[in-house]
Amino acid sequence: MIPELGHFALILALTLALAQGILPLIGAATNQTNFMAVARPAAQGQFVFVAIAFACLAYAFLVNDFSVQYVATNSNTRLPAQYRFAAVWGGHEGSILLWTLTLSVWTLLVTLFSRHLPQEMAARVLGVMGLISVGFLLFMLLVSNPFDRLIPAAMEGRDLNPLLQDPGMVIHPPILYIGYVGFSVAFAFALAALMGGRLDAAWARWSRPWTTAAWMFLTLGIALGSWWAYYELGWGGWWFWDPVENASFLPWLVGTALIHSLAVTEKRGTFKSWTVLLAITAFSLSLLGTFLVRSGVLTSVHAFATDPKRGVFILIFLAIVIGASLLLFAWRAPKVGLGGKFALISRETFLLANNVLLLVATGAVLLGTLYPLFIDALDLGKISVGPPYFDAVFMPLMAPAIFLMGIGPFARWKEQSLPELAKRLKWAFGVALISALLMPLIIGKWTPLISFGLLLAFWVIAAGVYGVWSRLAQTPGVMLSRIAKQTPSWWGMQLAHLGIAIFIIGVTLVKGYETENDVRMNIGSTVTMNNYVFTFRGATQQAGPNYQAWVGDVEISKNGKLVTTMHPEKRNYLATGMAMTEAAIDAGITRDLYVALGEPLENGAWSVRVYHKPFVDWIWGGCVLMALGGLLAISDRRYRLHQRSAKASDALPVGSQA
Amino acid sequence: MLRFLAPFAVFVALIIFFAIGLTRDPREIPSPLINQPAPTFTLQQLQVPAKQFSPADMRGQVWLFNVWASWCVSCREEHPVFVELAKRNLVPIVGLNYKDQRPDALQWLTQFGNPYVLSVTDFDGRIGIDYGVYGVPETYVIDKQGVIRMKHIGPVTPQILQDKILPKVQELSK
After folding, report:
1. Which terminus, N or C, of chain B has the lesser number of Cβ atoms within 10 Å?
2. Is there a cis peptide before residue A419, judged by omega within 30 degrees of 0?
3. Element (H, E) at A537
């Protein structure tokens, strides 16, 4: 009965989504207030029914209702309750339901925080989001209904993929989806602005907090996925350029460009059509990612059982949504006109250059991801593209972008003298250069690549510190009030840029200095790595809720003192018979110690893999700083000031926002 | 106006590619090598570089030839299947360690187990070209006369092993 309620709730949500998608758009075009007024209640009602459907599916999982096909495929009676809940999005149908729920939550938030918008703008934004929702609800109801019954019911479920039975899995997909789907708001704003012919600073200001919020979640979601791969897959890697990873990274790159471009559009009224195009692209890439992951056109470690009908449906949906918005762009954007003029050397130029670099990098990653598909479609054979391509292409493109990142915040809008800029930044560059040259020597091994990576990071930090210092020095008052006088969005920018630097340091040092050792360890035997002595005390068998595990006991000591004891596991999941490696990680600011069990050998000995990973946590720490930077930027109260003259925004001090 | 249509044009091209892509199975790859003699080679063995191996050494038995590499993510997915298969002693598996490095490859085998009677090293990927290796992993079924009878691209799942590979091995072993 409950699953039927869920199914019925989806149908009701679809009818409301249709009302939300069609009536307000007609109303806005023909200026009928009563039609436009449908948008909010319809969107809120839609949220209620999607939430009911989601709750019904979660309920079916929690009570082990194996008469529902999707539950029987993705759960098991022995699966712990929190994973039974996470299993709701452990497969295709539930993932789409989570996507739809996320979209309806974003829509709900728009209905709550758009009271100050002109009515036709709000109506158009909600209308566009309603139409997107129609697509996903239809997709579920027509070809991937999570509530399909299995008759007769299964006695036992097939269990959730053991890889996904992990706390990371409980939070990674929702956070990632919040980010992915959040770009739909920027997209809807862009389309609404195109329809209304209102591509102005106000539009950019309305879009900015939504875009930053989505970007923030996407950053966290990607970082969580990477961290999860690091500790769950057991071989210490954190990024593989897998098509599905790329699918989440592409909207991030474009979203980053969009955030910066929106800043220019808001402050200077330029880059309007470019900004609109970026907003469309960011969300299109989110949809494209959904298509790539769900249709099975590419092979990936995230491969799912695929059904051609689903692929065709998403492709048609993709064609309609993106095609229509690009046509709308081609029709309306030429009339937008140019904004304020700017000189060759100006903050606008730096931001534009960064935008172009980000977009070229996006293109390169997209090309690498889709190349196997192109070649196959042209009957030129089958190939695969791996990390060497992505490393070779991505890093040279990002290096100049990061160099510009240090300069950008110092440049003035409109026009900037280059010698003056060089004069201001020469010390920051000098300090960065010298420390980047010396640091690897102190650590122990110097290579050009390590030094170059550190140079980029130190440059961003030095320029940032100098920027903060000179800004605070110019502000009168005691230090605390000087700090408080800067806008949160300015601090947010500094923090996010610092996050990039921290991230680069993590990547550089872990690539440059990590050590790994694969050893056969008898009980009591030791292996020494970077002054840490690992002593293997044996492995014992323990029973988990739905698995049997070998739990290793490894003592770590340094200079004769016990540092910690680590317990790597080798699990065998009962329902699927899949073996999983649970690495033990002793995390630290300057290094992670990472121990994974390999294979059992004779007499209680095991093959053990041991890593020393210097500064690896800085990779995710950097991402967290970026996200916090985003959070600070959103908290800026100017986004909540509804009555603002355009003059006031121009009067903001130079360097206030990038 | 025209330049504003460029994004749309690019998108239409993409959609066409996707539509064609949907009609293909990225894992299904026809091999011109089916029913052809397996290309010969003589390569160093991975564990014992002093020793060499050539397909002719396997004459008279049906065997699996599995292309793997330590950098290959999907190989980790299929590896337990081979480790299990090796325990059952049904068919010898020879590994082709493809575009890899010896220490990495050896470490990989220590960590995940070694189901291979032996592995040969194809560090520059030349033999991979002869065998038409598109992506790793790939698995070939080679008969007693040294003729390739089947090729599977992508990770071997227990199901593929049971439904496709093992029946083929049994048929050829008669």
Report:
1. C
2. no
3. strand A532-543
Closest CA of chain A from B8, distance in Å: 5
The verdict on residue A641 lying in a domain is: no
ipTM metric:
0.83
Cβ-defined contact of A311 to B26 (cutoff 8 Å):
no
Percent of chain A clearing pLDDT 70 (strictly above) = 94
Q: Please tell me which residue of chain A has the smallest CA distance to B107.
A: A518
Q: What burial letters (b/e) apply to A534-543, b meaning 16+ CB within 10 Å?
A: bbbebbeeee
Q: State CA A597 to chain mean position distance.
A: 31
Tokens of A58: 């979660």
User: Coil, strand, or helix at residue A484?
Assistant: helix
Give me the residues of B, 29-88, that contact A with CB < 8 A. Answer: 29, 71, 73-74, 76-77, 80
Tokens of A221: 């979601």
**A238 and A283, same domain (yes or no):** yes
Q: Which residue type does A610 have? A: V
Query: Pick from A380, A406, A432: which residue ends a domain?
Result: A406
| Residue at B22: amino acid letter | L
The answer to whether the Cβ–Cβ distance between A382 and B26 falls below 8 Å is yes
CB of A386 less than 8 A from some CB of B: yes
User: What total of structural domains would you count in chain A?
Assistant: 4
Q: What residues of B are in contact with residue A568 (Cβ under 8 Å)?
A: none
Is residue B16, in this structure, part of any structural domain at all? Answer: no
Boundaries of domain holding B98: 27-173
In a domain, A657, yes or no: no
- Using alpha carbons, select from A494, A487, A489, A345 the residue that is nearest to residue A413: A345
Distance, CA of B119 to CA of B96 (rounded, Å): 6
Tell me if B19 is assigned to some domain. Answer: no
Do A520 and A509 share a structural domain? no
State whether A291 and B77 contact (CB < 8 Å): no
A438 in the same domain as A458: yes
pLDDT in tens, A306-345: 566 788 888 899 999 999 999 999 998 888 766 677 888 8
Tokens describing residue A107: 């829509």
Are A147 and A209 part of one and the same domain?
no
What residue of B is the nearest CA neighbor of A241?
Answer: B73
One-letter amino acid for residue A160 of the chain:
L
Instruction: Tell me the helices (H) and strands (E) count for chain A, helix number first.
Output: 20, 10
Rounded to a whole number of angstroms, the distance between the first and last alpha carbons of chain B is 70
Contact of A455 with chain B, judged by CB distance below 8 Å, is answered with: no
Alpha helices in A197-307 (DSSP H): 201-232, 243-268, 272-295
Residue-wise pLDDT tens digits, A436-476: 999 999 988 899 999 999 999 999 999 999 999 999 999 88
Number of Cβ within 10 Å of residue A425's Cβ equals: 19
CA angle A123, A125, A128 (to 5 degrees): 105
What percent of chain B has a predicted confidence (pLDDT) above 90?
32
Give yes or no for residue A224 having a pLDDT over 80.
yes
Residue with tokens 């690091």: A230
Nearest CA in chain A to B20: A377
Judging by DSSP bridges, how do beta strands A569-573 and B148-153 pair with one another?
unpaired
Query: Across the interface, which of B12, B73, B110 has its CB nearest the CB of A518?
Result: B110
* Residue A24 to residue A37: CA distance in whole angstroms: 7
The Cα–Cα gap between A465 and A159 comes to: 51
Q: How far apart are CA B7 and CA B14, in angstroms?
A: 11
C-alpha distance across the termini of chain A, in Å = 54
Query: Tens digit of pLDDT for each residue in B36-67?
Result: 888 889 899 998 888 999 998 998 899 999 99
- Which domain does A473 fall in, by range? 417-513
**Running DSSP on this structure, what letter comes out for residue A166?**
S
Angle at B67 between CA B62 and CA B71, to 5 degrees: 155
Cβ contact A311:A293 at 8 Å: no
